[in-house]
Amino acid sequence: MTIVTITEVFSTTIWAIIRKRSLSLTQALLLNPNFVSAQYNRGNAKFDLGDESGAFEDYNQAQAIELDHNIDSNDEHGYYGRGLARSHMGNHQGAIEDLQQAATLCSEYRNTALDQRVQEAIKNLQI
To answer: Are 8 and 46 a contacting pair, CB within 8 Å?
Structure first.
């Protein structure tokens, strides 16, 4: 008899939800390749699934799409996500650059909650 813990069930369920979200966002991008929020959110899903290089590509693509769509390419969350992806891929200098841009935007937009996480990520990379 196999004993499955609640943590294992929860982890499997969360992974399945994130994977389904990623697939749904891919379908949305097939219908509209310029759908910035879908590109950005698929980057988040890929990062959550451990696909840092895929997340990095999606964050880059979201920033490259014209500004007249749903998300500004100067979005602090996008730079934060891309910085984390770069960090996990071993590109610490690129990660610091993105995180510093996120910090600048956090200050501009007065996003203190995210700024704390950004500053902590920068600090961890500089150790």
So the answer is: no
Please tell me the pTM assigned to this model. Answer: 0.73
Question: In Å, how far are 47, 55, 107, 115 from 85, measured between CA atoms?
Answer: 7, 6, 22, 17
CATH of the domain at 116: 1.25.40.10
Distances (CA, A) of 71 to 1, 41, 63, 91, 100: 50, 11, 9, 25, 20
| Strands annotated E in 1-127 | none
How would DSSP label each residue in 15-32?
Answer: HHHHHHHHHHHHHHHHH-
| pLDDT tens sequence across 80-111 | 999 999 999 999 999 999 999 999 999 999 99
